[in-house]
Amino acid sequence: MKEYRLTQKQLAVYTCIKKYIRENNKSPYIREIQEACGINSYKVILDRLSALEKKGYIQRRLNKHRSIALSNA
């Protein structure tokens, strides 16, 4: 897999997800990521998650709660 660089904002979301999974042994809800990152817009979080998924850092299943998983890349 090709390595893609993350923007600072994408990295902040990725770091938040990693920390949450490490501390809770489950993935966060999108609203929990939004709160932890201090982002008011739900759409912004969705856009950043899509970017992380395209770059291969996470995997998601649509329409499933707590469906974010870190990639093993």
Write the layout of secondary structure elements.
Blueprint: H1 8-24, H2 30-37, H3 42-54, E1 58-59, E2 69-70
Antiparallel strand pairs: 1-2
Summarize it.
By secondary structure, the chain is mainly α. Helix content is 52%, strand content 5%.
The CATH superfamily appears as Winged helix-like DNA-binding domain superfamily/Winged helix DNA-binding domain
Number of strands: 2
Radius of gyration: 11 Å
For the sheet with most strands, the description reads: 2 strands, antiparallel
What is the helix/strand order?
HHHEE
Subunit arrangement of the protein = single chain
Q: Helix tally?
A: 3
Q: Output the CATH topology.
A: Arc Repressor Mutant, subunit A
What is the CA–CA distance across the termini? 7 Å
List keywords for this structure.
73 residues, mainly alpha, Arc Repressor Mutant, subunit A, two-stranded antiparallel sheet, 2 strands, 52% helix, globular
Structure description:
The protein has 73 residues and is mainly alpha-helical. Helices cover 52% and strands 5% of the residues. It has one domain: Arc Repressor Mutant, subunit A, CATH 1.10.10.10. A two-stranded antiparallel ribbon has the order 1-2. The longest helix has 17 residues, at 8-24. The N and C termini lie close together (7 Å).
